[in-house]
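Hi all, long-time lurker, first post. I run a small reading group and we've been trying to get comfortable going from sequence to structure in the token notation. Rather than ask abstract questions, I figured I'd post a concrete chain and ask someone more experienced to write out its structure so we can walk through it together at our next meeting. Sequence below, copied exactly:
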Amino acid sequence: MNATEELMKAATYYASEAVKYDKQGSKEMAISAYQKAIELLLKLVQFNPDYDLNKVYLQRANAYKARIEVLQGSLQQEMREGRLNDTSADNVSIKTDDDLILREKPNVKWSDVVGLKHAKIAIKESIIYPYKRPDLFPLGWPRGILLFGPPGCGKTLLAAAVANEIDAVFISVDAASIMSKWLGEAEKNVAKLFNTAKKYVKEGRAVIIFIDELDSLISTHSTEVGGETRVRNQFLKEMDGIMDKGKRLHLYVIGSTNKPWELDWPFIRRFQKRIYVPLPDYEARLQMFRLYTSRLRLAKGVDLSELALITEGYSGSDIRDICQSAQIKVVREFFESGKAENKGNKLRPITMGDFVEIIRERKPSVSKEMIPLYKRWYEMFKAL
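-- Answer (accepted) --
Happy to help. Here is the structure in token form:
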């Protein structure tokens, strides 16, 4: 697993732990876990400073910061009143619009999404065409779109790209920014999320609500508590509201998940389009190598076709990290040789050997055993 994946996995783990502690009423533990998640997200941004989706990571970090402030305020109130384990909702404020809205969309163009032909066609038919010519859709159009598949294959990129294509307000949320232990707050957050979106629609804007890791919010739980059930029911209610055929709203919910088999049928049914985002094939991998090396200095012997061939089973994120690691390798050698002290010296070009060495040391982030699970679920529930 590469450094980027390790940071993202750790950030996701601490965010999940924070939500768990939050729901249990362990405020100090929740604050500590949220802080660790924020620290890891910021490190992720620093590690990839030019990554287009850094704005999404920063938005999540800000949501966790807002939650920490609420928890700290509740703790201070308890100290003043001499109570330690109050579970009242009276002292909890609902998240503001600024906590939910990612006002500046990630700078992702449709052309930046390499491959994924079938996914692009399905999204164009569901969002772009109805937005441009709603008169051609007398029976309405899909409002719920589920993107599922292995991590690092472009689900978030697709959502950001289509938002830019129609200049939509892009609302990016995850389970940790919605869920809360306090009675009534989590379902109010869901209602507020959709009300915020509808406000923009009334102003004539298209809106895309992007929910990452959807399974964390609306998955099947064998030991579900009442609060989680209310959140799930509120989400179903809101989805039914925007799918009303009499309302020709340009309000779309795009859900993303790496674990589609954990979704319950009532939620699957609300996502009329269920699109498999698979690992890139040879042609897509070749295009990715061309895209990610376009800003790098390559030696004459670098064969991108060969690199695409030997990276079968690698995700798009893996390929980007391979190119980044090759550049870092050359930079490291440059500094260790002492040549960096002289600003007149330049980096040597990246060779085929550099790429081969990186690939030899870097395994795919998606196990082969997972692919049949995605294909099996796709055959059962696909809806392009």
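A couple of things your group might point at:
Residues 83-97, 221-225 have pLDDT under 50 and may be disordered.
The chain has three domains: 1-93, 94-279+366-384, 282-364.
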